[in-house]
Each structure stands twice: as C-alpha cells, then as structure tokens.
Amino acid sequence: MAVDTVRAHVVSNRSSGRRRTAGRVLNYALLTGAAALVLLPIYMTLVFSLQPGAEALRFPQSLLPTSVDLSVFARVFEVSGLWRYLLNSAVVAVAITIGQVVTSIMAAYVFAEIPFRGRNLVFGGFMATLIVPTEVTLIANYDTIVSLGWLDSYRGLTVPFLATAFGTFLLRQAFMGIPRDLRDAANLDGYGHLGYLWTVAIPLARPSIAALSVFSFLLAWNQYLWPLLITNSDSNRTVQIGLRSLASANVTDFNLIFAGTVIASLPIFALLILFQKHLIRGLTSGAVKG
Amino acid sequence: MAHGEFLILLGPSGCGKSTALRMIAGLDQPSSGIILIDGADVTAVEPQHRNVAMVFQSYALYPHKTVRHNIEFPLKNRRVPHDERTRRTDEAARLLGLSDLMDRRPGQLSGGQRQRVALARAIVREAEVFLMDEPLSNLDALTRVHTRAELTELHQRLGVTIIYVTHDQVEAMTMGTRIAVMDQGRLQQVGTPEEIYRTPANRFVAGFIGSPPMNLLPATLNPSSETNGLPTVWIGTACLGATSIGTGSQAQSQGHSQGPVLCGIRPEHLHRGEGPLTAQVTAIESLGHERHLHCAVQTADGPRTVVARESMDAASPAIGSEIHFGASDLHFFDPATGVRR
Description:
The complex is a heterodimer of chains A (290) and B (341). Chain A has 290 residues and is mainly alpha-helical. Helices cover 75% and strands 0% of the residues of chain A.
C-alpha cells in the first residue's frame, strides 16, 4: 500500500516535472522569436553597412555579409559632417537629460513631500500633459522659439524639453516609497527639505533617477521632428537630421547610410548596456512593496 | 516632568501616545495648548531646533549609509568639527557595543543591532530630551528583555530625560520612573509604577494595568450597624465585609458610603479557601510558576468572569467545580464615571 503511494507520488512528480520543462521550452521559444523580430533590423543594418552598397538590393538577401569593408566607417565621416552632428546631439541630449532630471527631482519632491492646497489638482494637470501628443504643441512651441529668436540654436533645441511630466511622476513615486520615518528622522537630525532631498531622498531614489536619465537621453538623442523644424544650418543639426541628409545625398551608397546609422546608435547601445540593471529596477520600483 | 526622568507614555493602540510624542518632537502640530521644554515655549519651533532626539519604532536608519555615517549624520549638519565628530561617534558606538560594526549597512544588521544604532544616533546628539516610540516592539522576546535592561542602565548612566511610548505594561512598569497612562487622547493618570498599580485613578487604569488585569465587579455598599458605622461590600448575595471607603463627612454627604459601586479586586488578592465569594471554575491556565483560575461569579447584574492568581504549590481545582474566595485590598470606582472613590 505504502509502496504504491510512493510510486504514484513519483509518477505524478515525474509528469508534473515534464510539464514544467515543456512550459519552459515554449516560453524560451516565444522569447527567442520575439527577440529575433526586434534584433533582425538592427542586425541587418550592421550587415548592410559592412558590405558594398549594391549588395543591399540583392534578392534573396543573405543573412551574412558577402564581403566585409570596414573603410566605410571612416568614409562616412569624410563625406558628411557626422562629427559635428554627433557633437550637437551629445550636447543637446546631455543638456535635456540634466534639465529633465533636475526639474523632475524638484517637482516630484514637492508633489511627494510638501503638502499645499490644490496639490492633487496641480499634479493632475501635470499628468494630463502626458496625453497631449508632442505634435499638438509643435506649432505653439515653434511660435515661441521664433519670437524668442532661438531658431537654429542649442537653446531652441533644448529649452522646450527641460521639464517632463513622466519624469516627475516616476520620481514622485520613488520619493513616496521612502518611509515617512526617514523624513522625520532627518528633520530631527537637523536637515530641512533641501538637506533631506540631497542626503537621503536622492541617494535612495537613485535607481529611478538612473532610469529617468537613460530615458531622457534616449528620447533626446532620437528626436527628429523638432530639430528638423527649427534647425537649418549644419552647425546646429543633430545626428538624426544629419543621417537624413546623408541618405538624400548618397542615394546609391547604401552602406554609407547604414554605417552612419550604426555609428549614431552606438551611444544608445552603450548607455542601455551600462544602465540596464538600473533601468529595470527604476521602472518597476514602487510597483510592489518591499 | 523633571530633568533626568524616565517617563513612560502608556496606553492601548490609537490612544494618542505616539501623536503626543510627535508633537513634543515638533513633527505634528497641536491643535491647541503649548509645549514647554526647559521652561521655553517651543510650540512654534521647528523640530531641528528643539534639541530633542528620537528613536523610531522602525529605527529609521538611512539604508544607504554605513553604521558610522548613520550615527554621525546629526552632527554633520551641525558643523561639529571632524575630530570631535569622530570622537563622539566612536564614544556612542563603544557605549552601545557597535564598534565592530561601523562599516556595515543597516541591511546587514540584526534587529537588536539596528535598534542600538538608532539609540547611538540619538545619544551622539547630546540632546535635552530623548523621545522613544515603541523602540522594542520589533525585537524578539529575548532581545527585548536584554535591551530593556540596557536602556534602563543607559538612562541611569547618562542621566538624560527620556519620554518613552509603549503599549507594553511590562516595559512601562520595569523601566519608567513615572508612568502617564493615556486613553482616547486623554491623560488618565500620572504616577510612579507602584502608585499606578496600587491606587489606579479610574476604572480604565485599573483594567489596563496588571496582567491579568484587575477584576471589576458590580457591587453594593450597604450601611451596617454591626460594623461601627462602616459600610459593608456586597457582590450579589456575598458580603465581603466592611470597608472604610466613604466614611469621611464629605463622602457621606455625597452619598459615597452607600449604593452601587464597581468593586476592583486584583487577581492576586482573591484568596481561594474559606470565603464569602462563591465561584465556578471555567478554565485554568498554568504558567509554570503560577496558575490563573478563570471563574464565574454571580453578581447583581448576572454572572461575571473573574481571574484569580495562585501559586502552583496549591492543588489545582477541577474545571466546573465550585470554589470559595476571600478578597483583600478592594478598590472602588464610581459605576457611572469610573472615577476612584
């Protein structure tokens, strides 16, 4: 009797184990498929940049480069002002990132820690801006920039993006997740709002701040419509606009265009790899207690 | 409250003791009244300027800072010179046995160690008043007993003024020089642990202090010609004898010497044996060193449960059996207001 029970237990264990393995295989197969779907365009961009331009038009396309020509990466800098575009993008993206992080920290702290009449209403208004598409504000912003005389300048490229409702929301959640006792303890230890913000709240909200920084940089780096609208000189164009002009000037040199694209995406990849841990932690922090 | 006193704010959850403490700290504002520290009105003074240190129930240690940085954190902002800061931090750490843990973060410490870091952070301030909000409630039973003794010793050694909030009456009775009992936001009684235990000011204090708490039974005081004018105490049909309560002329004129009262008897003052009070045993709890007998007693308002405490040396009665009690050290409270008579 007892032996039968044990045997039944072993059999049921074995079948549930098999079911678990099958589930895992299916999971990984789905994930691999999804990853391939996302990575294929990026991989093909790399392949096209390495082989002679005409190869890109061949059908069926090979997944491996027919020949490798690295000189294209040097040539892309010679035929276009890519250095300048990259520099412009870097300046603009860094300025926007710093601006967004600083303003988000300040606003988020107020919304999280300083009670005032109508706070929730103001915060609601802040959040409502998230549902307004950028394109809607384009004309109004353009008008403002023109009247300020900031067309075709770094100021015009950065100032409209120095504050973000998303960042404020993200950091507000992070600040609200810090136990109330820490705020009180710091208060009794002699730290006012700024002291507490600097010595306790910011260090504890670091994962969220890192996530916001990466997102801000990413969005600023990939901006296309706004820089296209307000810049007209090479000295102020960002890399995305530069790639567009590279493409129109070198219609047949596909490898040149793809090489430019690869170079323009390198900083983004570097950033994602460096900060991926913070990125995931920052975006999920506050989602669950603990 | 006098300098160097160890005052306990004691009361059930939600009675306002933590709120009172937070108001003393300046973290909450009182809706009326003023707060004086050393004779000065500090009601409108910011918490950081009140010179009070606080130990929180959650310890409130900064998780990103090491033990050393946690302890010296209050000194940094007060521009204490580096050398002095280090000296005071090391001294506080040595006092609380934290010297070997200075480079660890709070996450790497046990509950007891964290509690000591929180204490060190308060001590290093050399504040006028120490506020402690249930600092032992997150510790296991053994560490709690140990830390309780440490805190008492620390208070004696440093001679500081401490206001300590707890709902644990054992902590209150063993640590405090005085206890302030609170209920529903009101102060019920302030006194030494002995005064609170021996002469509770009202029905709430009587029922709250003591484990098991005082038995409170509806009783009647009847004037008697056989007891030299002293009224006799009746619980149901049992006469517990004469009492000197309400024999003063003022009390008599107010009618305190007769009529219904609430009679309080501590469990240790119910003596099993030959006595007027008849009871039926409903449950028995053995604690190893003593026994608690839960019994049903007939009163004028129907049956009531009383708890008697007795030594394990006595033979245990059977559940359901009828036993008799004599009672001593009776307390009387007004049945309407609950105030001690």
